[in-house]
Amino acid sequence: MRRRFLEALGVAALIIALVLVLKFARAPVSAQTGQPGTAAKAGPAPTTPWGEPDLQGIWTRDSDEPLQRPAKYGSKATFTDEERAAFDKQIAEIVGREASEERRQRGTEQDVGGAYNAAVFTSHLRTGRRTSMIVDPPDGRIPAVTPEEQKKRDEMREYSLALMQATDECKKKLPACAGGKYGPPSPRRAETPPSYVFNAAVGGGGGAINRSDGPEDRGHGERCMAAALPDFGGFRRIVQSRDQVSILYDVGQGQGWIRAIPITDAPHVPKNVRLWWGDSRARWDGNALVVDVTNFSPKSNFQGAHENLHLLERWERVDSETIRYTVTIEDPTVWTKPWTVTHDLKKQKDEDNRIYAEPRCHEGNHGMAGLLIGARQQERAFAMGKGPNPATMCLGACGGFAGGFADEGGDANPLR
């Protein structure tokens, strides 16, 4: 009895600690570290003992800037401090209150999915100064895709919606089923997807399907293969020598990976050699490390670009506290023109961040096996008349509200 009581106390303490951590994580950074402009002035950019810019340390973003500029901001490139403070207050109010019944009905799969993601995986930073990380084109938007790429995306979207048409998402006309219709299970559930499945989230335009016949149905994320280059989130642990820079990308939930960048004038590997994160070749240009990246794998994925993706990165040590990361992204088979992203990474305290990078993606790395076993059990239960038709069940991103935001209206993310 005493043991059970102590265990209950332990569980209660853990829950209280988690609530406190989440409460702090959700608060805008301005509430944690002061309003913009109050930080001490950073010192000059340091150099290594051999005289090159020193990129070493643990780096991450300290503010939130959307990748694309919301269309409503037009040509506006930056926010004022007053606008940023207003956004921080608005966002804190949205994510801090319970969702209305109009947004999410309690007990539904949308409620459970949205609450899980908002509580476990989502934190909120203060609003950044830029209205978008994209600085070219000047409108801050990803360029239009080519007609061939759009045709491929439309085919995948049509197939995805067919597999979803018997779900509650289509019946309620939720965003995950936008463009689709509600009806009986589609015979297309037996078809092979029109292209390789990269995205496991149902409703995404990049190739998500509502089926679990095999691991290839579930996309990169659930297969622990979601880490991509370029990456604009998470942490970077950079270690540097005279002829190489090594970066550990800690991007959450076991999707971390290590990248070795040789500083050399040697050519890229032959074109028939294809690598998941491409082949990098670097050189110094003043205070910046310039990295050319080619030779991606056909199964690599960044915003729909695969083996034809080409990156030109610039890692510039601006001062003692800042690295400015800029990358020009090009794939003529996907976008009608190149585009450029930039954002600042802030140095973390070395002593406070001596962390062990957890290599697991899901518990014991058995999550995928469990997902497929569960799918087979659902099929057997339905065949025996003891459960719903699996075709009526949504398997991921089922209308849950990302980060506590609604898809539209007053509770939508004002930065999206």
Descriptive key words:
416 residues, alpha+beta, ten-stranded antiparallel beta sheet, two-stranded parallel ribbon, 8 helices, 17% strand, globular
Give a concise summary.
By secondary structure, the protein is an alpha+beta fold.
Furnish the topology, listing elements before pairings.
Layout: H1 2-26, H2 29-33, E1 57-60, E2 63-64, H3 81-96, H4 109-120, E3 126-127, E4 134-136, H5 147-164, H6 168-171, H7 219-222, E5 235-240, E6 244-250, E7 257-262, E8 279-285, E9 288-294, E10 310-319, E11 322-330, E12 339-347, H8 367-383
Parallel strand pairs: 2-3
Antiparallel strand pairs: 1-5, 1-12, 4-12, 5-6, 6-7, 8-9, 9-10, 10-11, 11-12
Account of the 3D structure:
By secondary structure, this protein is α+β, with helices and mostly antiparallel strands. Helix content is 24%, strand content 17%. The protein has helices at 2-26, 29-33, 81-96, 109-120, 147-164, 168-171, 219-222, 367-383; strands spanning 57-60, 63-64, 126-127, 134-136, 235-240, 244-250, 257-262, 279-285, 288-294, 310-319, 322-330, 339-347. The strands form two sheets. Strands 1, 4, 5, 6, 7, 8, 9, 10, 11 and 12 form a ten-stranded antiparallel sheet that branches. Strands 2-3 form a two-stranded parallel ribbon. The termini are far apart.
